[in-house]
Amino acid sequence: MEQVYRLTISCPDRVGIVAKVGGFLSSHGGWIVEANHYADPVSGWFFMRHCIKASSLPFGLEEFKEKFAPIAEEFQMDWQVSDSAQAKKIILMASKESHCLSDLLHRVHSKELFCDIPCVISNHDDLRSMVEWHGIPFFHVPMVRSDDADEHAANKQEHFDRVNSIIAEHKADSIVLARYMQILPAEICQQYAGQVINIHHSFLPSFAGAKPYHQAAERGVKLIGATCHYVTEELDAGPIIDQDVMRISHRDTIEDTVRLGKDVEKRVLSRGVRSHVEDRVLLHGNKTIVF
């Protein structure tokens, strides 16, 4: 795949943004190979993603940032530019369910998904052999439960202190919760805002929280779904990256529903992670623009 610089921009909408960016790139010989624009009529904001051939420019990424900064300031841009040749570091977190984790590991192993997985963190040891087969370090950080509320809170704090230190040690760009069945504390959500991706096994905002397939079965739904979203302090309420559904009927048992739902979960999570690592997702409040 040809190396490109990915330039993403969000800013107040006004005349001249595309012309200014295009003029800057063309003045340096920049060759745009993909361009996406969207102006939101409700918020009055403009969103852009351009891919520029790295070989067409006479300078590297750092000089690009220096030269583009005055334009960004003029238009009050929230912007970033990244190098497609630099793999993002994505830490995966899981519990006992293997389907989402194994799917992502396979996609990275087979080079369908370009990112680096420095480690996998789990609160159970069940998936160690599968992860280590891929040559990836596996960290088992148990969550010790207790009937005593204070002791349980202390154990939980110890668990997430260790998790946070592993994330920092491996210099993760992002974190993917591949069916990690624990609620992240507020400090991790805040520290990695817009960088923690979760897969929820329902079509949010319906059936948030625990056992959504059981909730769906009780309601007799005809469509089940999965939602890939960014994690925020509010449970299952972060900006949505991707969703999909699958049709079921009254003949499907809860076991059938769970089995079918796992297929949707894998598909939705892999698409969401791909969009994220390719800088296709622009955040605006609690919404996303996905190019």
Q: Can you give a write-up of this model?
A:
By secondary structure, the chain is an alpha/beta fold. The protein folds into two domains: 4-83, Alpha-Beta Plaits, CATH 3.30.70.260; 90-290, Rossmann fold, CATH 3.40.50. It contains eight helices and 13 strands. A seven-stranded mixed β-sheet has the order 7-6-5-8-9-10-11, sandwiched between helices. A hairpin with a 2-residue loop joins strand 12 and strand 13. It is globular. The mean pLDDT is 93.
Brief account:
With 291 residues, the protein is α/β, with parallel strands linked by helices. The protein has helices at residues 17-27, 61-74, 99-109, 128-133, 149-169, 186-191, 212-219, 254-277, and strands at 4-12, 32-40, 45-53, 78-83, 90-94, 120-122, 138-140, 174-177, 196-200, 223-230, 240-247, 281-284, 287-290.
Layout of helices and strands, plus pairs?
Blueprint (H helix, E strand, L loop, with lengths): L3 E9 L4 H11 L4 E9 L4 E9 L7 H14 L3 E6 L6 E5 L4 H11 L10 E3 L5 H6 L4 E3 L8 H21 L4 E4 L8 H6 L4 E5 L11 H8 L3 E8 L9 E8 L6 H24 L3 E4 L2 E4 L1
Parallel strand pairs: 5-6, 5-8, 6-7, 8-9
Antiparallel strand pairs: 1-3, 1-4, 2-3, 9-10, 10-11, 12-13
Helix pairs in contact: 3-8
The helix/strand order is EHEEHEEHEHEHEHEHEEHEE
CATH homologous superfamily identity of the largest domain:
Formyl transferase, N-terminal domain
- First and last CA, distance: 19 Å
Query: Radius of gyration over alpha carbons?
Result: 21 Å
Percent of sequence in beta strands: 25-35%
Mean pLDDT value: 93
CATH first level of the largest domain? Alpha Beta
State the share of residues found in helices, binned by percent: 25-40%
Q: Largest beta sheet, briefly?
A: 7 strands, mixed
Count every helix, treating DSSP H or I runs of 4 or more residues as helices: 8
Shape: globular
Strand order of the largest sheet: 7-6-5-8-9-10-11
CATH topology of the largest domain: Rossmann fold
- Low-confidence blocks of residues: none
The figure for the number of domains is: 2
Strand count: 13
